[in-house]
Amino acid sequence: GYAHNNWEWVTKKLLEKGHSKNNIILAGLARDKQSGATGAYDYFRDRIIFPIRNNGQVLGFGGRQLNPGQGPKYLNSPTTPIFRKLELLYGFPQALSEMKEVGSVTIVEGYMDVLALHQQGFKNTVGLMGISLTLEQAKGLAKYTDRAVIALDPDEAAEAALGRLKVEALSELDVYVASIQTNRDPDEIVLENPAEWEDILGGAEPIPIYMTDYLIDKFTPNDPKERRNVAKLVMPLINTVSDPFEQAGYQEYLADALGFTNYRPNPKCPHCGKPYYGASK
């Protein structure tokens, strides 16, 4: 749908149909006028509108800007009694069947991305309505699949990855990160070349490995102190991994990537994350 470039178009139409101003505001479709003025103004203006559904019901809306510079690129309904963004994923009902069949879900940022990917056959795709996967969203996904791939541009992917290991541990969802090394959005990539999108997903990495590669590429550490600084950023992530064998593998990957050729995880305490430097035997 489309929200008119008008401050009161939706509000007036709903008032004419007998809805009260308070209910229109409560539904997240309008806001009270400020500075003592009476009435309300439309929440969405001059945007493409996407209904956000769950269990067959429309709970809220997402709006994508048409003219850059006029507010945020994506605008979601505010929190209402039935719309809680932190618990919902755009396109989830449509992706559920494919998600269960392939045993994996792909998570992107935008509504247009989800639509284009579904049209090109990537039907296990959902949209974050932001860049951060919440614990509530992860727990919802973990009921149907055990693997999630977050596909964002490098900086957004890194930001999203930093806080996701705790979510992963608490939700029992294995979270991978696929970095989009281009200025194009997923919808542009998949419409131009679906095979390129498959390659991006195929390069997805566990969060500690992704962050190791990302930080080394970003800071290009050349001496032991610089490499130590990268290690200090990655080790807290690795330490949140509960499985001792998985944790030891990430420690070894970090050591090899930083050139600490004699580093090995402490064999007496593989789960504690304490650094142990000694020649391998």
Automatic annotation (TrEMBL):
<dbReference type="InterPro" id="IPR034151">
    <property type="entry name" value="TOPRIM_DnaG_bac"/>
</dbReference>
<feature type="domain" description="Toprim">
    <location>
        <begin position="103"/>
        <end position="185"/>
    </location>
</feature>
<dbReference type="Pfam" id="PF08275">
    <property type="entry name" value="DNAG_N"/>
</dbReference>
<dbReference type="InterPro" id="IPR013264">
    <property type="entry name" value="DNAG_N"/>
</dbReference>
<dbReference type="GO" id="GO:0005737">
    <property type="term" value="C:cytoplasm"/>
</dbReference>
<dbReference type="InterPro" id="IPR050219">
    <property type="entry name" value="DnaG_primase"/>
</dbReference>
<dbReference type="Pfam" id="PF10410">
    <property type="entry name" value="DnaB_bind"/>
</dbReference>
<dbReference type="InterPro" id="IPR037068">
    <property type="entry name" value="DNA_primase_core_N_sf"/>
</dbReference>
<dbReference type="InterPro" id="IPR019475">
    <property type="entry name" value="DNA_primase_DnaB-bd"/>
</dbReference>
<protein>
    <recommendedName>
        <fullName>Toprim domain-containing protein</fullName>
    </recommendedName>
</protein>
<dbReference type="GO" id="GO:0006269">
    <property type="term" value="P:DNA replication, synthesis of primer"/>
</dbReference>
<dbReference type="GO" id="GO:0016779">
    <property type="term" value="F:nucleotidyltransferase activity"/>
</dbReference>
<dbReference type="Pfam" id="PF13155">
    <property type="entry name" value="Toprim_2"/>
</dbReference>
<dbReference type="InterPro" id="IPR006171">
    <property type="entry name" value="TOPRIM_dom"/>
</dbReference>
